[in-house]
Design brief:
By secondary structure, the chain is α/β, with parallel strands linked by helices. Helix 3 (104-113) packs across helix 4 and helix 8 runs antiparallel to helix 14 (425-446). The mean pLDDT is 93. Bound molecules: fructose -6-phosphate. Residues 298-301, 345-347, 350, 353, 397-398, 482, 486, 603-604 line the site of fructose -6-phosphate.
């Protein structure tokens, strides 16, 4: 969740620590800090709020050093105030931490009994105090002090330490949270995110579970959890350093919404040969040997799983479940060796999803990842990887990554359906052609963004918004509501249209806006009846439909936005776009922080 970085170099490191933190800020932005060793002493600077406040503080009171660590925080233990910001510093040790120490309280109590005074409410300070104790009381060396400390810790962590008097050393370790090392010339780097290292070095390696490492400016040594010296494969990063430019746009989210026509073409180009009308896919488990599909993800990624459940059952005829990763592994689910488990994640680092993946691996080898970050833990721990090719997504609210997840899952769906002879050659070719139409249809909808902006005026003065969809558009109603909540802080709920009468209809009155997704389909008339029930109770309906749906809904509402017609199975991809725009324009109206909404972080690496 938090972002961590460390640099040890023959040159000054402070400016580059800040550059690195800038690329990590999406992981947490409620406070930030750095520490270095300068003239043998630990010096540090911390600030609450966005990184820019830390930058200003350092401009006024500069610090220097050839070794340093930095952190952007997403608060877990202790509110986002300066004393809780990282690094946590004792007499001899400074540490930054990503993760959660579950048993910190028992150590804290022991240290308090010994008269140790704590400055913060964090679990991380306990780590600093335990390492300090090993160094100053038990006279351990830095690596040994860290190794003995982490032996006792439960939970997840990626940790970077620097030490008083040691101007050429960083000690790092990880369990549960990722850490990547970057190799430079006369300098070495560590970060919670390999992409943030790409501005410093393209040669990286990933530490494995329980690894420790020491970094000096000339050398990196890695040890496994037993203290054996080990070698970890290095890789060359081909991804361009994260482009931090918003171009002509006001926000990254706006840019990421508007670049979707190109991004969709990109992902389609990766998996489809448009000229021959064929799929070109990475290797994949044999469809005929799969009894069930279980799709797992969190948040927006879970909603793409839910949409794919409808697709896999209706088109491929495979029993399919969609599961919330955070629930999955703790409820003793049944996983069999002929199940295919598909883990969907933008970041590939979501702790809940990784936990579910590791649980499932005990029962089956059929582990497939649909991820955006191709170097991520989920990709590395899966047996098959389908990249979503959305490019770096900086806005915290997922937009283009979600759409690419849907497209990749749809492609898998078509592949299984044709392998199992569930669709005719003609139907398959229609679906592939339908997918190829998407960039054009997206561009067409985006060109009408001003009309969608006007529809958002219906939300003025409302405290809550309902989103309705039926069948394959139900997951999209859920996603639309999530997007609105996340960035505009306006309460919103998604419902399956048929469920309204079972309770939520009690909420409907003249002040309640309701966004309905109802293009012409086999369930059109059913949903129209549900919407009539809303109208009868004076709810304000904003309808997204197609040409035929519009003709049949003329008497329902004046707030209708007509989308281009497309195959029923592709509507989830098309109808997501106006809902992204609704969330974005509502947030603009409300003046919220669109790219870094309060309390959220892009990559959720705690459970
Ligand atoms: C919402 C959003 C989150 C993520 C969720 C999973 O806009 O971005 O709900 O979808 O935290 O993250 P990933 O996809 O990185 O596993």
């Amino acid at each position: 969740m938090c972002g961590i970085i460390g640099i040890v170099s023959k040159n000054q490191v402070v400016d580059r620590l800040i550059d690195g933190l800038e690329r990590l800020e999406y992981r947490g932005y409620d406070s930030a800090g750095i520490a270095t060793i300068s003239s043998s002493e630990i010096v540090h600077s911390k600030s609450t709020g966005k990184l820019v406040s830390l930058k200003n503080k350092i401009k006024q009171n500069p610090i220097d050093g050839h070794v340093g660590i930095g952190h952007t925080r997403w608060a877990t233990h202790g509110e986002p105030i300066e004393v809780n910001a990282h690094p946590h510093v004792t007499k001899n040790v400074a540490v930054v931490h990503n993760g959660i120490i579950e048993n910190f309280a028992e150590f804290k109590n022991g240290l308090l009994e010994k008269g140790i005074i704590f400055n913060s409410q964090t679990d991380t300070e306990v780590i600093a105090r335990l390492v300090e104790e090993k160094i100053s009381m038990e006279k351990c060396g830095p690596l040994e002090a860290v190794r003995l400390t982490i032996e006792k810790l439960r939970g997840s962590f990626a940790l970077c330490f620097i030490f008083k008097g040691l101007e050429n050393l960083i000690v790092v370790t990880r369990r549960g949270s990722p850490l990547a090392l970057g190799f430079g010339d006369g300098e070495n780097f560590v970060s919670s995110d390999a992409l943030s290292l790409s501005i410093f070095s393209r040669k990286v390696c990933y530490l494995e579970e329980g690894d420790l490492a020491t970094l000096t400016s000339d050398e990196v040594k890695i040890y496994d959890s037993f203290g054996n010296s080990v070698f970890r494969d290095t890789q060359i990063l081909f991804t361009d350093p994260i482009n931090l430019s918003k171009g002509q746009y006001k926000h990254f989210m706006e840019k990421e919404i508007f670049e979707q026509p190109e991004v969709i073409s990109q992902v389609l180009g990766y998996y489809l040969n448009a000229f021959e009308g064929t799929l070109s896919l990475p290797s994949l488990p044999q469809s005929t040997e799969i009894q069930r599909i279980i799709l797992i993800g969190c948040g927006t990624a879970f909603y793409s799983c839910l949409a794919a459940k409808y697709w896999f059952e209706s088109l491929s005829g495979i029993t399919t479940h969609a599961e919330l990763a955070s629930e999955f592994r703790y409820r003793s689910p049944v996983v069999r060796k002929d199940d295919l488990l598909i883990f969907v994640s933008q970041s590939g680092e979501t702790a809940d999803t990784i936990g579910a993946l590791r649980f499932a691996k005990k029962y089956t080898k059929n582990i497939l990842a649909v991820v955006n970050v191709e170097q991520s833990s989920i990709a590395r721990e899966s047996n098959w990887v389908f990249p979503t090719k959305a490019g770096p997504e900086i806005g915290v609210a997922s937009t283009k990554a979600f759409i690419c997840q849907l497209i990749v899952l749809k492609i898998l769906n078509i592949k299984f359906a044709s392998d199992l002879s569930k669709i005719s050659v003609k139907n398959r070719s229609n679906l592939l052609n339908g997918l190829l139409e998407l960039p054009r249809l997206y561009a067409e909808i985006l060109s009408q963004n001003e009309n969608i902006k006007k529809l958002c005026k219906k939300f003025i003065g409302s405290n809550s918004v309902l989103y309705l969809g039926r069948d394959v558009l139900y997951p999209i109603a859920l996603e639309g509501a999530l997007k609105l909540k996340e960035i505009s802080y306006l309460h919103a709920e998604g419902y399956a249209s048929g469920e309204l009468k079972h309770g939520p209809i009690a909420l409907i009155d003249e002040s309640m806006p309701l966004v309905a997704l109802n293009p012409w389909s086999k369930v059109f008339e059913k949903t129209l009846s549900n919407l009539e029930e809303v109208k009868a109770r004076r709810g304000k309906i904003i309808l997204f439909t197609d040409k035929k749906g519009k003709e049949l809904s003329k008497d329902l509402t004046k707030s209708i936005f007509q989308l281009p017609s497309c195959s029923e199975l592709l509507t989830p991809i098309l109808y997501s776009l106006p809902l992204q725009l609704i969330a974005y324009y509502t947030a603009l109206d409300k003046g919220t922080d669109v790219d870094q909404p309060r309390n959220l972080a892009k990559s959720v690496t705690v459970e």
